[in-house]
Specification:
By secondary structure, the chain is an all-alpha fold. The protein has helices spanning 44-53, 90-121, 141-151, 172-175, 189-199, 211-215. Residues 111-121, 146-158 have a biased composition (Basic and acidic residues).
């Protein structure tokens, strides 16, 4: 009798009646979701008991201040304390501006005096020799330097040295008579050259078109 009239539209229970056949696959977006973990919804009697046992919580006075394991906690007494704002004195700002403006004419006058002194010191002459100015040499020197750079360009750095693998490696077994690993087939030329470079403690980059040859 308690579940009378309950359906997918108004029940959260897993034991509620299913919806109509038209909603058997996709359901309906207006259906209530199930309670998590298979929990059953409370009856009216359970709701009344819980409401009687519930206590009124004062969110202003009953707050916990010290967390577990701590000796001290938060202090909420100074919540309404106002932060003192710095006072701005306009007269002090105006006085600093006056001091700056008083300093500017002095610097301008000093610069003007320096310019007049320099103008007086310069002698009056009509020849470049008297002023100590020599004729500029023609711009042939930089062009010659440029030609030398073109004739002797700097050598470009080589990050890799290619190894000739077209000719067979005849002295492979003389240089490595007892290899650490032996294969049941004859190695290719690039594989032998790679082994020789590794034996010489050099880094090797193998650029082969097949992965089988590189894994050997």
């Amino acid at each position: 009798q308690e579940n009378m009239g309950l359906s997918a539209k108004n029940s959260l229970s897993l034991q509620r009646q299913p919806g109509p056949p038209s909603e058997s696959l996709r359901g309906s977006n207006t259906n209530y979701p199930f309670l998590p973990g298979g929990m059953e919804e409370l009856t009216l009697e359970q709701i009344k008991k819980n409401s009687e046992l519930e206590e009124e919580i004062d969110f202003e006075n009953d707050l916990l201040k010290v967390p577990p394991g701590f000796k001290a906690g938060m202090d909420f007494t100074n919540k309404d304390a106002k932060v003192a704002k710095p006072e701005v004195n306009l007269m002090s700002l105006l006085s600093t501006l006056d001091e700056i403006s008083n300093l500017q004419p002095d610097t301008e006058e000093k610069e003007g005096d320096k310019q007049t002194e320099e103008a007086v010191k310069l002698p009056r002459t009509n020849s470049l020799e008297d002023l100590g100015v020599k004729d500029a040499t023609p711009s042939s020197i930089p062009s010659e330097a440029g030609n030398k750079d073109k004739q002797n360009p700097e050598e470009k750095k080589k990050w890799a040295i290619p190894v000739d693998i077209t000719s067979p490696c005849q002295d492979f077994y003389k240089l490595i008579p007892n290899p650490a690993f032996k294969w049941p087939f004859e190695l290719d030329t690039f594989q032998k050259q790679a082994v020789l470079k590794l034996e010489a403690h050099e880094s090797v980059f193998v650029a082969a078109h097949t992965s089988a040859g590189k894994t050997v």
